[in-house]
Amino acid sequence: MHTPSHAKNRSRALLIAALAAAGLAGVAVHAATSSDTTTPPASTGHWHHHGRGAHFMHVLKQLNLSPEQQTQIKGIFASARSQFKELGTSMRSNQEALESTAPTDAGYPALLATEKANAAKRIEQMSAVKTQIYAVLTAAQIKQIPAIIAADKAKWQQRQQNSAPAAAATPGSSS
What we know:
Layout: H1 4-33, H2 51-61, H3 67-99, H4 108-136, H5 139-169
Helix pairs in contact: 1-2, 1-3, 1-4, 3-4
């Protein structure tokens, strides 16, 4: 049964997905075009707080990219930046309209359709960027990616396990 609350929950889910994708794109573009070429120490573990775009950049930095590859990848992100910004603007304005429009309003279905289309465009843009980046990588670098991701996942799981007992030991301290 489709009720206004179901439509609202669906809109929220789409918004969250779209915002996550927008964040992914923004972080990836920033990381790729940043003038800071140093890799943070592995012990900091902060990259995982910034979404998949930051994680993808973390993976790329571990591939020992040649200066030429770095330049090409920065160029890929730079050329995609205007498209990401344009779509981000569209997504924000549409979301503002969705927030102020009741699901019973005659214009609501069109806003919802735009939200869905924007989310699909964001996924397509990120896929196109990733495809272009993979075309720059060597076969050996591409083969390294699953192992890097698996190692990062194992490190994350280990940190989660190590922090769980500490959190359970102090039940009265909540933030």
